[in-house]
Amino acid sequence: MVIKVSINGSTLPLDEARISPLDRGFLFGDAVYDVIKFIDAKAFMYDKHYWRITNSLDGLQFPENDWSFLLEDMRKLIHENGLENGMSLVYLQISRGAYEARSHEFPKEEIKPTIFLMATPCPQLKPKGLKLASRQDNRWGLCKYKTVNLLGNVLTKQSVVEDGNCNEVVLIKDGIALECSSSALAIIDPEGKVVTHPPADYMLPSISVMGMEQVCKNQGLDYVERPFTLDEVKSAGEVLVLSSVRDISQANILDGEKVGDKNPEILDKLQKGFADLVKSSLS
After folding, report:
1. Which residues partner with 35 through β-bridges?
2. Residue-number span of the structural domain to which 234 is assigned
3. What's 222's domain CATH number?
4. Using CA atoms, how far apart are residues 191 and 214, in angstroms rounded to an integer?
């Protein structure tokens, strides 16, 4: 099957896609991205994704623009790839664009942003039994913007891949568990409360966590935003990993030791409630 992608609104086979070597996303990581889940060509919580995309663009001081056309372009690409039935993922990347010279400062002239879209089937991942490893957070300080500056995430993930079987990495800063290298992190504490780290400059606003907060309200579960330590993760009733691909998944191994697996009823409520939320939050 020929995979078709979109560059600046033009659809073409992946192996024919080209960008300029002077594109600022390529040279400086001057770009934002997002990954959006679609079911039957309808996007999950797209209003939240759109907020995160535009918030990241604003944070990188991109020129003001109307990005409302993006959703229709993504739907078009899903149909072009025959993915209109079932679950799919769209990878979206917007760079500041290409300029005639390599220079750190923003071009004084207005340049056209480079918009890249790729649609793929959504993999079916197991909802329970993930294995985690902890590592110190070595990323830059503005992870609240979803940029393509992911080398810290990449090196951290590679370190655990080389060490053995592991699904995700828990990032630690000053003893506090923040998030995972490519997912969000939450725990169910010994009192049965669902706990996530509060928003911070050095953490990505998670769409899945926003969804889980809504599920907690719907299910009458206690939801708390507060920092929690690595030791709290190890003693938690459940350890949760959240992402557009995973929804809410359970981890039961951390640094080679068993964790969680003590609150199956709350876990079941969260997972079933999130599945219902997905169905009711498509656009």
Report:
1. 91
2. 130-280
3. 3.20.10.10
4. 20
Cα 94 to Cα 41: distance, rounded to the nearest angstrom: 21
CA atoms within 13 A on the CB side of 30: 20
CB 242 within 8 A of CB 265: no
Indicate if 144 and 176 belong to the same structural domain: yes
For residues 97 and 144, state if they share a domain: no
Nearest to 134, CA basis, from 82, 92, 185, 81 = 185
Q: 240-259: per-residue pLDDT in tens?
A: 999 999 999 999 999 999 99
Number of domains in the chain: 2
How many CA atoms lie within 13 Å of 174's alpha carbon, on the beta-carbon side?
2
Of 121, 103, 95, whose CA–CA distance to 26 is shortest?
Answer: 95
* Distance separating alpha carbons of residues 157 and 220, to the nearest angstrom: 35
Query: What secondary structure letter does DSSP report for 236?
Result: -
What is the rounded average pLDDT for all residues in the chain?
97
Task: Note whether 136 and 220 are same-domain residues.
Answer: yes
Instruction: Identify whether residues 172 and 117 lie together within a single domain.
Output: no
Q: What is the pLDDT of residue 164?
A: 74
